[in-house]
Design goal:
By secondary structure, the protein is an alpha+beta fold. The protein has helices at about 5-15, 55-65, 85-95, 115-120, and strands at about 25-30, 35-40, 70-75, 100-105, 110-115. The radius of gyration is 13 Å and the shape is globular.
C-alpha cells in the first residue's frame, strides 16, 4: 500500500468524525505489520474527557482484533498546519510500536513523515 492510499483511507475516515463542538474532523488509518489497516475518526463528547481521537480509535480497533505491531499511521485533517498526534495519542501508540512511521497531512493533500520516536522521544514505560 502506498502512502497516498493510506492517506486516502484516513481522509475517508475523517468523513465519519463526530465533531459538533470543535468542527475539527480527523481521520486515521493504521497499518499493522501484517498489512491489515484499521481506520478511525475522532468522536467528541460534551464531557470533554470522554472525547477520543482518531488515532486511538484506530489503535483500539486493531488491538481488539489482536494486533499489537504497527508499521505506520496516516492522519488527515483539512487544516493549515500538519495534523500531528496529540500527546496522549503519541504515548498510546508508543505502547505498541515506538518506531512506527507517522504520516501527517494538512490541507492541499500534502503530508510529512516522522518516526513516532521523533515526536515523542521520551516515552513513559516500565
Amino acid at each position: 500500500m502506498t502512502d497516498r492510499e493510506l492517506m486516502s483511507m484516513a481522509y475517508e475516515a475523517s468523513m465519519n468524525a463526530y465533531v459538533p463542538y470543535s468542527r475539527f474532523a480527523v481521520g486515521a488509518a493504521l497499518e499493522c505489520s501484517d498489512g491489515t489497516v484499521y481506520t478511525g475518526c475522532n468522536v467528541e463528547n460534551a464531557a470533554l474527557g470522554s472525547t477520543i481521537c482518531a488515532e486511538r480509535t484506530a489503535c483500539v480497533k486493531a488491538v481488539s482484533d489482536g494486533k499489537r505491531q504497527f508499521r505506520r499511521i496516516a492522519i488527515f485533517a483539512d487544516s493549515q498546519n500538519w495534523c500531528t498526534p496529540c500527546g496522549a495519542c503519541r504515548q498510546f501508540l508508543a505502547e505498541f510500536s515506538p518506531e512506527m512511521e507517522v504520516l501527517c497531512a494538512k490541507a492541499g493533500s500534502r503530508y510529512v513523515s516522522y518516526k513516532l520516536s521523533e515526536l515523542l522521544p521520551h516515552t513513559f514505560n516500565y
